Amino acid sequence: MSSSTTKIVFTLSVLAATFVSNIWASDGAQVPLSDSESNPIKLGWMQGFPPPQDKLIMQPESDFFSFPKMRWTVCHIRELMPTKEVSRGIGAPVPMAYALDSGIDSVKFNPLGSNKPMTWKQSLSANYTDGMLVLHKGRIVYEAYSDCLNDTGKHAAMSMTKSLTGLLAEILVVEGRLNPTAKVATIIPELKDSAFGNATVRQVMDMTTSLKYSEDYADPNADIWVYSKAASPLPKQKGYKGPNGYFEYLQTLKQDDIKHGEAFGYKTVNSDALGWIISKVTGKDIASMLSERIWQKMGAEQDGYMTVDAKGIPFAGGGLSAGLRDLGRIGQLMLNSGEINGQRLFPKEVVENIQAGGDKNAFAKAGYKTLEGGSYHSMWWVMHNEHGAYAARGVHGQTIYVDPTAEMVIVRFSSFPSAANSKIDPTSLPAYQAVAKYLMQN
Amino acid sequence: MSSSTTKIVFTLSVLAATFVSNIWASDGAQVPLSDSESNPIKLGWMQGFPPPQDKLIMQPESDFFSFPKMRWTVCHIRELMPTKEVSRGIGAPVPMAYALDSGIDSVKFNPLGSNKPMTWKQSLSANYTDGMLVLHKGRIVYEAYSDCLNDTGKHAAMSMTKSLTGLLAEILVVEGRLNPTAKVATIIPELKDSAFGNATVRQVMDMTTSLKYSEDYADPNADIWVYSKAASPLPKQKGYKGPNGYFEYLQTLKQDDIKHGEAFGYKTVNSDALGWIISKVTGKDIASMLSERIWQKMGAEQDGYMTVDAKGIPFAGGGLSAGLRDLGRIGQLMLNSGEINGQRLFPKEVVENIQAGGDKNAFAKAGYKTLEGGSYHSMWWVMHNEHGAYAARGVHGQTIYVDPTAEMVIVRFSSFPSAANSKIDPTSLPAYQAVAKYLMQN
Questions:
Q1: Are B151 and A93 in contact (CB < 8 Å)?
Q2: Which strand (E) or helix (H) includes residue B321?
Q3: Which of A11, B64, B131, B333 has the fewest CB atoms within 10 Å, i.e. is most exposed?
Q4: Which residues pair with residue A411 across a beta bridge?
Q5: A189 interfaces chain B, CB cutoff of 8 Å
């Protein structure tokens, strides 16, 4: 590297670091360990026989999902919780084609709200990236693993799981097996007296149900804690009287003051309800459905898996772990409107419906600053940008980003210290757009 | 079917049923549901969304591993407990060749202690068989699945896990990385003050260590219960002061009155100690070692997995679940002295050492009626019969049975109501020998 190049790279690194510090400073929060400082292998988590006491990562979740421990945990969910397999079957995987492009690393972009350029490569560590895959015209042009992940490993997909649940539902809708205008109570009588009972399937799919449900983590009585206790696969404590499992919890939810369909509200319980709907319609759990309809048919190279509640019900709202390239196959399947490896897995209308997006006005009410003008439809985030991009997204930076115009798919696994994607979007969304432009020019 | 054939089959069925009833009656125990009556799919375990209360199978283990529930559980261990993957990697599986022989079903044999013949097919249900595979000269001549298992499913291997742990240790011995005459304390200083400290690696491998350790399930203070609590992956109850995990538990074990090396005593803790030895020597846990040395190299079609304790340590004494044909590959690998699909995975001395067997006198002291004249070596059961057969065995009827003379491998997954293989041996060991003879004549 020439000294001038070194200088530029150094300067950019400092700028990137400053930018990241500013994000945290604006929060009043303590600046966390950097990507490199929090590398789980360097920190020695779970290494040794046995690991020393201060290197153990164990139950409960409040410990194993705290930063920086969660940088190990995102690759090891199944070692901490019961899970159900998403089987790829037993045939040979279909390898993906490669056309690696080393130029991507130096693609520059301005982070949102900044006029100081950052390179693609810098953005990876700014975003605590564990795995990054870029597909262009169906071929892998960029692939990188770091921290806990490698190419035979799996990583928590978090709320990207929702988009796969939404995809299954949309397939059933297009196949005529699920009526989106039906009231939920007609499919799940057990939800008749809950908020979901008089909502439509479509309102559940688009998260425009009206629900009294608080995810205020600072409030010890917030619904999220009742939900967490219900969802835990661990045996309930003696004397516990609350709901056990996703399905019992959903029955307790009440409607909020507004009507269904008026506003988008990002609430995971909608995905659990949709998972239940799919199971009632098909007689199969979500993990089995994902296996049958997607994993066994897309040439997957690894099984996926889903966490389950104490009754064995897979977590349709966030339980999936999978390999990076397998999520790449899913992105490619979406980009190709339901086809992969010359096989059609579902009608093209499924993708057309998702890509068309949902109610922008309902979405605007939720006030997502980094996603202005967007919508949420069938549990996919639709950008409504000039490339018609849409995405599966999960906390701590997970994404499958599909750009139909650039014929590009990006999959990112990461373990950003904060759950909020609004903090990772400034250094990721413009990076995706810059790489899309770069690929279109080549 | 002709009426005379029907009559014979019916008569034989009645004889088989009588034989099975007699086994239970001799015990004074209640005759359990038959294979067909206890079919987990028929019984409806875990079916429905959600499953009705009386069809749920959940923690704790005393519930999920009780008969007949355990007939569902043996195929679903990972849905109840945290597990670690035994990865097959991401390459294409190597399919196994077929030469199915429908004549096997009617091969007859006399159960041990009986002069009333039974057919092979009858023995399958007499033994509550979930999966049965017979390989002859490397080709599948017989394959059957029932109850909870199918050819893309996995089943608990129970103590067959020990034989794989023993195989790994024997590989390290032959490779010169593990000294069988070394005292355990020189490898695991943490075990210095335990019974294992002054035992040799070989004594651990052959379970001739002298240990104060009771597996009397009727005694609430028996060591097995302390061990179970230590091994549980669930968070410990408040105020729990006992050992946490396999490694802490092993440190508490004291030596019995006799010397090490004098008598065989089938105690699972030896396998856990051997797992620890392997991890200290290689720096890798048992699941990773099984993946690296066996699963990734034998053309496996499914990943396996192992249960773990609360610290993520895989259960070397019984934690494996795997596919039927993948255990067939392991049997074939043994039969071929370390080669499979034209690849050598380990030196032939490994199998020669195991096959040679251990100390017959030490074994005789344990009084195994159905295995008289046998021995236990490197955690394999060596028959010392005229065919030189040896086996991996697990409670409730699991086996990999290797017959070098007949060039035959049998793998059985089952969920026999009683844990004791002494009850399943009478209708399985002579069946294996009869099929071996049949195959040699064809």
A1: no
A2: strand B320-322
A3: A11
A4: A133, A400
A5: no
Token code pair at residue B442: 């064809």
- Residue in A with minimal Cα distance to B308: A79
Query: Is A17 a member of any domain?
Result: no
Of B404 and A12, the one with more pLDDT: B404
Residues of chain A with pLDDT under 70: 1-29
- Catalytic site residues of A? 159
3-state secondary structure A321-366: EECHHHHHHHHHHHHCCCEECCEECCCHHHHHHHHHCCCHHHHHCC
Check residue B291 and report its DSSP letter.
Answer: I
DSSP letter for each residue of A104-146: GGG-EEPPTT--S-EEHHHHHHHTTEEEEEEEETTEEEEEEE-
The beta-strand segments (E) located in B342-424 are 343-344, 375-377, 380-382, 390-394, 398-403, 408-414
Strands B390-394 and B380-382: antiparallel
Q: Are the C-beta atoms of residues A229 and A214 closer than 8 Å to each other?
A: no
Tokens for A35?
């990507």
Domain count within chain A: 1
Is B63 in the A-facing interface, judged by CB distances under 8 Å? no
Q: Is residue A236, in this structure, part of any structural domain at all?
A: yes
What's the pLDDT score for residue B51?
A: 95
Angle between helices A160-174 and A269-282 (to 10 degrees): 40
Taking residues B48-73, what's their average pLDDT? 94
The CATH code of the domain that includes A210 is 3.40.710.10
CB contact A285 to B (< 8 Å): yes
> Is the residue at A266 inside a domain?
yes
- Residue in A with minimal Cα distance to B281: A49
Instruction: Provide the residue range defining the domain that includes B211.
Output: 119-441
Of residues B22, B11, B7, B144, the one with CA closest to residue B426 = B22
ipTM of the prediction: 0.92
Residue B15 lies in a domain: no
